[in-house]
Amino acid sequence: MNKITLYGKSNCKLCDEVKDLVVVLAMDYQIEMTEVNIEDDEELLHSYFLEIPVLFVNEERMDYREIDVFSLRERLH
């Protein structure tokens, strides 16, 4: 089982695009996804405000600059 944690916030189009990408990949891979709204935690908001969406795929961090279907597939099993 692949574990993905998406750090994002509400009204974030890039976050929505990443969620949609994970849904598509879930057709081929077993994925358990957790979403974390950084607006609910002051420390996360401070850390990730300008860098969302941030994904942790099987504990490996990916920031918005490197998230695409090909790089995600490389990290899934």
From TrEMBL:
Coiled coil: none annotated. Gene3D superfamilies: Glutaredoxin (3.40.30.10). InterPro entries: Glutaredoxin-like (IPR008554), Glutaredoxin-like_YDR286C (IPR052565), Thioredoxin-like_sf (IPR036249). SUPFAM superfamilies: Thioredoxin-like (SSF52833). It holds the Pfam family Glrx-like. This is Glutaredoxin family protein. It comes from Halobacillus naozhouensis. The lineage of its organism: Bacteria, Bacillati, Bacillota, Bacilli, Bacillales.
